[in-house]
Amino acid sequence: MQVIIAQPDHSKWAEEICQLLEEAAKVKGTGIAKRSHTYIVKKINEGKAIIALSNENEVAGFCYIETWDHGKYVANSGLIVSTKFRNLGLAKRIKETAFELSREKYPQAKLFGITTSSAVLKINTQLGYRPVIFTDLTIDDAFWKGCESCKNYDILTRTNRNLCLCTGMLYDPQEKEQKQKNESIEDEEKSRISV
Ligand SMILES: CC(C)(COP(=O)(O)OP(=O)(O)OC[C@H]1O[C@@H](n2cnc3c(N)ncnc32)[C@H](O)[C@@H]1OP(=O)(O)O)[C@@H](O)C(=O)NCCC(=O)NCCS
Protein backbone atom coordinates (compact mmCIF):
# COMPACT_ATOMS: atom_id res chain seq x y z
CA MET A 1 0.00 0.00 0.00
CA GLN A 2 1.36 3.44 -0.86
CA VAL A 3 0.12 6.74 0.56
CA ILE A 4 1.32 9.64 -1.59
CA ILE A 5 0.57 13.18 -2.73
CA ALA A 6 -1.73 12.65 -5.72
CA GLN A 7 -0.34 13.47 -9.18
CA PRO A 8 -2.41 14.77 -12.13
CA ASP A 9 -2.71 11.29 -13.70
CA HIS A 10 -4.47 10.10 -10.52
CA SER A 11 -7.46 12.23 -11.52
CA LYS A 12 -8.67 9.15 -13.43
CA TRP A 13 -9.82 7.93 -9.98
CA ALA A 14 -11.82 11.08 -9.21
CA GLU A 15 -15.17 9.49 -10.10
CA GLU A 16 -14.46 6.48 -7.90
CA ILE A 17 -13.47 8.77 -5.01
CA CYS A 18 -16.76 10.71 -5.40
CA GLN A 19 -18.66 7.41 -5.30
CA LEU A 20 -16.80 6.23 -2.18
CA LEU A 21 -17.69 9.52 -0.46
CA GLU A 22 -21.31 9.32 -1.57
CA GLU A 23 -21.70 5.69 -0.44
CA ALA A 24 -20.14 6.50 2.95
CA ALA A 25 -22.50 9.48 3.35
CA LYS A 26 -25.50 7.20 2.65
CA VAL A 27 -24.34 4.58 5.16
CA LYS A 28 -23.45 7.12 7.82
CA GLY A 29 -26.45 9.36 7.17
CA THR A 30 -24.63 12.41 8.46
CA GLY A 31 -21.46 14.47 8.55
CA ILE A 32 -20.10 13.92 5.04
CA ALA A 33 -20.54 16.74 2.53
CA LYS A 34 -20.84 15.99 -1.19
CA ARG A 35 -17.84 16.72 -3.45
CA SER A 36 -18.08 17.05 -7.19
CA HIS A 37 -15.87 15.24 -9.68
CA THR A 38 -14.54 18.64 -10.86
CA TYR A 39 -13.59 19.63 -7.33
CA ILE A 40 -11.71 16.37 -6.67
CA VAL A 41 -9.82 16.75 -9.99
CA LYS A 42 -8.94 20.36 -9.08
CA LYS A 43 -7.52 19.29 -5.71
CA ILE A 44 -5.45 16.54 -7.37
CA ASN A 45 -4.10 18.90 -10.04
CA GLU A 46 -3.16 21.51 -7.42
CA GLY A 47 -1.03 18.94 -5.54
CA LYS A 48 -3.35 19.29 -2.54
CA ALA A 49 -4.67 15.73 -2.36
CA ILE A 50 -3.42 12.55 -0.74
CA ILE A 51 -4.22 9.22 -2.32
CA ALA A 52 -3.73 5.66 -1.04
CA LEU A 53 -3.21 3.01 -3.70
CA SER A 54 -3.22 -0.71 -3.03
CA ASN A 55 -0.60 -3.08 -4.39
CA GLU A 56 -3.19 -4.08 -7.01
CA ASN A 57 -3.41 -0.40 -8.01
CA GLU A 58 -6.90 0.19 -6.60
CA VAL A 59 -7.84 3.46 -4.92
CA ALA A 60 -7.98 2.64 -1.21
CA GLY A 61 -8.28 6.07 0.35
CA PHE A 62 -8.23 9.82 -0.21
CA CYS A 63 -8.13 13.22 1.49
CA TYR A 64 -7.38 16.79 0.38
CA ILE A 65 -6.25 20.07 1.87
CA GLU A 66 -7.88 23.44 1.38
CA THR A 67 -7.10 26.96 2.61
CA TRP A 68 -9.64 29.38 4.09
CA ASP A 69 -9.59 33.01 5.25
CA HIS A 70 -6.82 33.86 2.76
CA GLY A 71 -4.52 31.09 4.04
CA LYS A 72 -5.05 31.80 7.73
CA TYR A 73 -6.69 28.39 8.13
CA VAL A 74 -6.14 25.02 6.46
CA ALA A 75 -8.60 22.14 6.57
CA ASN A 76 -7.92 18.51 5.76
CA SER A 77 -11.20 17.28 4.35
CA GLY A 78 -12.92 14.61 2.29
CA LEU A 79 -11.24 11.75 4.14
CA ILE A 80 -12.38 8.38 2.87
CA VAL A 81 -11.06 4.83 3.17
CA SER A 82 -12.65 2.13 1.02
CA THR A 83 -14.52 -0.41 3.24
CA LYS A 84 -12.20 -3.20 2.13
CA PHE A 85 -9.17 -1.37 3.58
CA ARG A 86 -10.60 -0.10 6.86
CA ASN A 87 -9.15 -0.74 10.33
CA LEU A 88 -5.65 -1.20 8.95
CA GLY A 89 -4.35 2.20 10.04
CA LEU A 90 -4.78 3.66 6.55
CA ALA A 91 -6.78 6.76 7.58
CA LYS A 92 -4.05 7.48 10.09
CA ARG A 93 -1.37 7.32 7.38
CA ILE A 94 -3.42 9.51 5.03
CA LYS A 95 -4.09 12.11 7.73
CA GLU A 96 -0.42 12.12 8.77
CA THR A 97 0.63 12.77 5.16
CA ALA A 98 -2.00 15.52 4.79
CA PHE A 99 -0.81 17.05 8.06
CA GLU A 100 2.82 17.09 6.88
CA LEU A 101 1.82 18.58 3.51
CA SER A 102 -0.29 21.27 5.20
CA ARG A 103 2.48 22.22 7.62
CA GLU A 104 5.02 22.34 4.81
CA LYS A 105 2.86 24.42 2.44
CA TYR A 106 1.31 26.71 5.06
CA PRO A 107 3.58 26.76 8.15
CA GLN A 108 1.80 29.78 9.71
CA ALA A 109 -1.75 28.50 9.19
CA LYS A 110 -4.02 27.01 11.81
CA LEU A 111 -5.11 23.50 10.85
CA PHE A 112 -8.68 22.50 11.54
CA GLY A 113 -11.40 20.03 10.76
CA ILE A 114 -14.97 19.22 11.68
CA THR A 115 -16.01 15.61 12.10
CA THR A 116 -18.56 13.17 13.50
CA SER A 117 -16.09 10.28 13.20
CA SER A 118 -14.57 8.86 16.38
CA ALA A 119 -11.67 7.45 14.33
CA VAL A 120 -10.92 10.97 13.03
CA LEU A 121 -11.24 12.48 16.53
CA LYS A 122 -8.66 9.95 17.66
CA ILE A 123 -6.27 10.54 14.76
CA ASN A 124 -6.51 14.34 15.06
CA THR A 125 -5.83 14.14 18.79
CA GLN A 126 -2.74 12.03 18.09
CA LEU A 127 -1.60 14.71 15.61
CA GLY A 128 -1.88 17.41 18.27
CA TYR A 129 -5.31 18.90 17.44
CA ARG A 130 -7.66 19.83 20.28
CA PRO A 131 -11.46 20.08 20.34
CA VAL A 132 -12.78 23.64 20.01
CA ILE A 133 -16.07 25.47 19.59
CA PHE A 134 -17.00 26.49 16.05
CA THR A 135 -16.32 30.17 16.75
CA ASP A 136 -12.60 29.29 17.06
CA LEU A 137 -12.66 28.04 13.47
CA THR A 138 -12.62 29.90 10.19
CA ILE A 139 -15.27 32.54 9.56
CA ASP A 140 -14.90 32.02 5.80
CA ASP A 141 -18.45 31.65 4.41
CA ALA A 142 -17.15 29.46 1.59
CA PHE A 143 -16.05 26.79 4.09
CA TRP A 144 -19.43 26.64 5.82
CA LYS A 145 -21.17 26.60 2.45
CA GLY A 146 -19.63 23.12 2.06
CA CYS A 147 -21.97 21.97 4.85
CA GLU A 148 -25.06 22.82 2.78
CA SER A 149 -25.24 19.29 1.37
CA CYS A 150 -25.17 17.74 4.87
CA LYS A 151 -28.57 16.69 6.16
CA ASN A 152 -27.91 18.50 9.45
CA TYR A 153 -27.35 21.87 7.81
CA ASP A 154 -30.53 23.25 9.39
CA ILE A 155 -28.95 22.78 12.85
CA LEU A 156 -25.90 24.78 11.81
CA THR A 157 -28.01 27.66 10.49
CA ARG A 158 -30.40 27.59 13.47
CA THR A 159 -27.42 28.00 15.84
CA ASN A 160 -25.82 30.79 13.77
CA ARG A 161 -22.89 28.45 13.01
CA ASN A 162 -22.04 28.09 16.70
CA LEU A 163 -23.01 24.42 17.04
CA CYS A 164 -23.79 21.32 15.04
CA LEU A 165 -23.32 17.54 15.29
CA CYS A 166 -19.68 17.69 14.18
CA THR A 167 -16.86 18.37 16.65
CA GLY A 168 -14.48 21.15 15.65
CA MET A 169 -10.77 20.40 16.06
CA LEU A 170 -7.85 22.80 15.80
CA TYR A 171 -4.07 22.62 15.56
CA ASP A 172 -2.58 26.04 16.26
CA PRO A 173 1.17 26.18 15.42
CA GLN A 174 1.68 29.44 17.38
CA GLU A 175 0.08 27.85 20.43
CA LYS A 176 2.32 24.76 20.07
CA GLU A 177 5.41 26.94 19.71
CA GLN A 178 4.51 28.93 22.83
CA LYS A 179 3.85 25.72 24.77
CA GLN A 180 7.25 24.34 23.78
CA LYS A 181 8.95 27.60 24.85
CA ASN A 182 7.16 27.53 28.22
CA GLU A 183 8.11 23.90 28.74
CA SER A 184 11.78 24.52 28.01
CA ILE A 185 11.77 27.56 30.40
CA GLU A 186 10.18 25.33 33.09
CA ASP A 187 12.77 22.59 32.46
CA GLU A 188 15.59 25.12 32.71
CA GLU A 189 14.21 26.49 35.98
CA LYS A 190 13.80 22.98 37.40
CA SER A 191 17.36 22.04 36.53
CA ARG A 192 18.64 25.31 38.05
CA ILE A 193 16.74 24.62 41.30
CA SER A 194 18.03 21.03 41.50
CA VAL A 195 21.68 22.12 41.08
C1 LIG B 1 -13.32 7.11 9.30
C2 LIG B 1 -12.44 6.29 8.38
C3 LIG B 1 -11.72 7.25 7.43
C4 LIG B 1 -11.40 5.52 9.25
O1 LIG B 1 -10.53 4.83 8.36
P1 LIG B 1 -9.61 3.61 8.83
O2 LIG B 1 -8.52 3.44 7.84
O3 LIG B 1 -10.46 2.43 9.09
O4 LIG B 1 -9.02 4.15 10.23
P2 LIG B 1 -7.67 3.67 10.91
O5 LIG B 1 -7.54 2.19 10.72
O6 LIG B 1 -6.53 4.52 10.45
O7 LIG B 1 -7.96 3.97 12.43
C5 LIG B 1 -7.43 5.08 13.13
C6 LIG B 1 -7.77 4.95 14.59
O8 LIG B 1 -9.19 5.06 14.77
C7 LIG B 1 -9.72 3.89 15.36
N1 LIG B 1 -10.99 3.60 14.68
C8 LIG B 1 -11.17 3.17 13.42
N2 LIG B 1 -12.49 3.07 13.15
C9 LIG B 1 -13.13 3.43 14.28
C10 LIG B 1 -14.49 3.52 14.64
N3 LIG B 1 -15.46 3.23 13.77
N4 LIG B 1 -14.81 3.93 15.88
C11 LIG B 1 -13.83 4.22 16.79
N5 LIG B 1 -12.50 4.18 16.50
C12 LIG B 1 -12.17 3.78 15.27
C13 LIG B 1 -8.69 2.79 15.12
O9 LIG B 1 -8.74 1.80 16.11
C14 LIG B 1 -7.39 3.57 15.15
O10 LIG B 1 -7.00 3.78 16.52
P3 LIG B 1 -5.48 3.51 17.01
O11 LIG B 1 -4.65 4.63 16.44
O12 LIG B 1 -5.55 3.55 18.48
O13 LIG B 1 -5.09 2.19 16.44
C15 LIG B 1 -13.26 5.24 7.57
O14 LIG B 1 -14.01 4.47 8.46
C16 LIG B 1 -14.19 5.89 6.55
O15 LIG B 1 -13.79 6.14 5.41
N6 LIG B 1 -15.45 6.18 6.96
C17 LIG B 1 -16.42 6.83 6.08
C18 LIG B 1 -16.05 8.25 5.75
C19 LIG B 1 -15.85 9.11 6.98
O16 LIG B 1 -16.51 8.97 8.00
N7 LIG B 1 -14.90 10.04 6.83
C20 LIG B 1 -14.56 10.98 7.89
C21 LIG B 1 -15.31 12.24 7.67
S1 LIG B 1 -14.72 13.47 8.80
Descriptive account of the structure:
- By secondary structure, the chain is an alpha+beta fold.
- The chain has a single domain, classed as Aminopeptidase, CATH 3.40.630.30.
- 43% of the residues lie in helices and 22% in strands.
- The chain is built from seven helices and seven strands.
- Strands 1-2-3-4-5-7-6 form a seven-stranded mixed beta sheet, sandwiched between helices.
- Helix 1 packs across helix 2 and helix 3 crosses helix 4 (118-127).
- The protein starts with a strand and ends with a helix.
- Bound molecules: coenzyme A.
- Coenzyme A (COA) is lined by residues 24, 28, 32, 79-81, 86-92, 115, 117-120, 122-123.
Instruction: Identify the bound ligands.
Output: coenzyme A
Task: Kindly report how far apart the N and C termini lie.
Answer: 51 Å
Number of helices: 7
Give the SSE order as H and E letters: EHHEEEHEHEHHEH
Q: Count of DSSP E strands?
A: 7
Which CATH C-level class is it?
A: Alpha Beta
Fourth-level CATH superfamily: Gcn5-related N-acetyltransferase (GNAT)
Extract low-pLDDT stretches.
Answer: none
The gross shape turns out to be globular
Query: Whole-number radius of gyration?
Result: 18 Å
The oligomeric state of the chains shown is single chain
Averaged pLDDT: 91
CATH architecture: 3-Layer(aba) Sandwich
CATH topology: Aminopeptidase
Largest sheet: 7 strands, mixed
- Percentage of residues in DSSP E strands: 15-25%
The computed structural class is alpha+beta
Helix fraction? 40-55%
User: What is the spatial order of strands in the main beta sheet?
Assistant: 1-2-3-4-5-7-6
The number of domains is 1
